[in-house]
Automatic annotation (TrEMBL):
Organism lineage string: Bacteria, Bacillati, Actinomycetota, Actinomycetes, Micrococcales
Residue sites binding [4Fe-4S] cluster per the record: C10, C94, C192
Protein family (similarity comment): Belongs to the IspH family.
InterPro entries recorded: LytB/IspH
Annotated (2E)-4-hydroxy-3-methylbut-2-enyl diphosphate binding sites: H39, H72, H122, T162, S220, S221, N222, S265
Protein name listed in UniProt: 4-hydroxy-3-methylbut-2-enyl diphosphate reductase
Organism: Georgenia halotolerans
Binding site for dimethylallyl diphosphate: H39, H72, H122, S220, S221, N222, S265
Summary of the function given for this chain in its UniProt record: Catalyzes the conversion of 1-hydroxy-2-methyl-2-(E)-butenyl 4-diphosphate (HMBPP) into a mixture of isopentenyl diphosphate (IPP) and dimethylallyl diphosphate (DMAPP). Acts in the terminal step of the DOXP/MEP pathway for isoprenoid precursor biosynthesis.
Pfam families xref list: LYTB
Residues where isopentenyl diphosphate binds: H39, H72, H122, S220, S221, N222, S265
Cofactor info, note text: Binds 1 [4Fe-4S] cluster per subunit.
Pathway: Isoprenoid biosynthesis; isopentenyl diphosphate biosynthesis via DXP pathway; isopentenyl diphosphate from 1-deoxy-D-xylulose 5-phosphate: step 6/6; Isoprenoid biosynthesis; dimethylallyl diphosphate biosynthesis; dimethylallyl diphosphate from (2E)-4-hydroxy-3-methylbutenyl diphosphate: step 1/1
Active-site residues, Swiss-Prot/TrEMBL: E124 (proton donor)
Alphabetical keyword list: 4Fe-4S, Iron, Iron-sulfur, Isoprene biosynthesis, Metal-binding, Oxidoreductase
């Protein structure tokens, strides 16, 4: 078994999940969460059992109650609706998504047309689009480049959803630049470090894997991308599972080598379960394939941090072994 490293929780997901857990401990039940805090079924179910109440929008939250905004971010309109209902908000938006929001506002203020590469309907894209709806158009991929219309080809910039395939995004940018030679790049890379690292890691092991298993939920963009990246990088086959129970033994029948990775919203316990299941199927020799070391950590949302401090609670966030790291025996 080739085990990809890095994998699993990124800093933004770790912060968002921790924010809900700390809020439940500090304020008690219920704590409302708009949308899924992160795109992982197991995480949502676990937090629900602890007292989190997941809602589709702020109008489902009782007036004056407390609500957490998910790691994917929200638009100014959502924030305004929450304020109108006197909701106490905790903004768990990933700081890397917030960076894209600020870029959108900056370019809109200078009257640029903004081409947002991403997936229509994804919460992150909805939030970014909402920052400057009159200036942003979403480009879902290379196949939509021909449909793009701009007011001034001299004043066009591209931004992207943070969880996309790096290769597909750059293919879209290449085609956009052929149409708009003056297309500007974002001030810094929009695709997050964790998304890129996980794609690089799965690329490294895929040529040697008969089958690659990706642990992650179906609505997790970065997890779905990892399946695609594995296949493009030469894996014989690739499958996504939410949990070990979904792993079909037929997938690995006759395989000599299996690759394993997980999306950026997947807790390590789910990966451990798949390792155990693959061990039962004969893949007991585990070799780690490390392509990067991650040590980024984001602090909790400011108002939650302040309330924890006032209550004499710990605001520091040590990494927890249950979310990260797994002991492996080198093959």
């Amino acid at each position: 078994m080739l085990l990809a490293t890095p994998r699993g929780y990124c800093a933004g997901v770790d912060r968002a999940v921790d924010a809900v857990e700390k809020a439940l401990e500090l304020y008690g039940e219920p704590v409302y969460v708009r949308k899924e805090i992160v795109h992982n079924k197991f995480v949502v179910e676990t937090l629900t059992r602890r007292g989190a109440v997941f809602v589709e929008d702020t109008d489902e939250v009782p007036e004056g109650a407390r609500v957490v905004f998910s790691a994917h971010g929200v638009s100014p309109a959502v924030q305004a609706r929450a304020a109108a209902r006197n909701l106490a908000t905790i903004d768990a938006t990933c700081p890397l998504v917030t960076k894209v929001h600020k870029e959108a506002v900056r370019f809109a203020n200078t009257d640029y047309d903004i081409l947002l590469i991403g997936h229509d309907g994804h919460e992150e894209v909805e939030g970014t689009h909402g920052e400057a709806p009159d200036h942003i158009q979403v480009v879902n991929g290379p196949h939509e480049v021909d449909q793009v219309q701009v007011r001034d080809p001299e004043r066009v910039v591209w931004l992207s959803q943070t969880t996309l395939s790096v290769d597909e995004t750059m293919e879209t940018v290449k085609l956009l630049r052929e149409r708009f030679p003056k297309l500007q790049d974002p001030p810094s890379d929009d695709i997050c470090y964790a998304t890129q690292n996980r794609q690089v890691s799965v690329k490294a092991l895929s040529p040697d894997a008969d089958v690659v298993i990706v642990v992650g939920s179906a609505n997790s963009s970065n997890s779905v991308r990892l399946v695609e990246v594995a296949l493009e990088a030469g894996a014989g086959a690739a499958h996504r599972v939410d949990t070990a129970a979904e792993l079909d033994p037929a997938w690995v029948e006759g395989a000599a080598t299996v690759g394993l990775t997980s999306g950026a919203s997947v807790p390590e316990i789910l990966v451990r379960d798949v390792i155990t299941r693959l061990g039962e199927l004969g893949f007991g020799d585990v070799e780690e394939v490390r392509t990067a070391t991650e040590d980024i950590m984001f602090s909790l949302p400011k108002n939650l941090r302040a309330d924890l401090k006032s209550a004499g609670e710990q605001t520091a966030r040590p990494r927890r072994g249950g979310r990260r790291g797994v002991d492996v025996t080198a093959g």
